[in-house]
Specification:
Length: 202
Amino acid sequence: MPTMRLTVLGDSFVEGRGDPDPDGGFRAWAPLLAESLGVRPDRWRNLGVYRATTQDVVDRQLPRAVADQSPLVGVVVGTNDVVSDYEPARFRANLDTIFGALTGAGTVVFTAGYPDMPARLPVPERYRTLLRDRFTEANAALAMTARRHGVVVLDLARCPHWAADDVWSADGLHPNAAGHRRFAATVRDALADDGWGVPAAA
């Protein structure tokens, strides 16, 4: 099997929920990013799975991502930990394992923080406050761990585009088609700002 040029792993944000393909499945941001970077369709892989937690990524996706040996890797995961199975110590340890295994010589890894998802969820105000506290803590842990491993972080919580309703599906958790396209563009711009070029064809 040829070495991949781009591998993305994580949860339904990566899988592409909110951006259905008329032919079935999901379109998502990954193929848009791959195309914009000149990566051929047979040289990128999307490992994202609905409802995946950081533990799922460690157990099931990480070994495959490491085997791909891609020079560019994206990781977006953690929302399901925060919403339904939050254990701060395990969350931090899993992020450390994921980033530690993926980063290395010649590899660029990017990730994304968590926007204010509780603002759009139909939940009681007390639970909304709890979720916001969790997301704040999770964002801090993600930023710290990513910085330690040299991972590029897209800080969606501070980006006004991700506070607007027009990039989100009705469920409040998944980007819509416009949101997936915006995320692909956000990643591309962040990589350009970081000095990362188009991967060489292989």
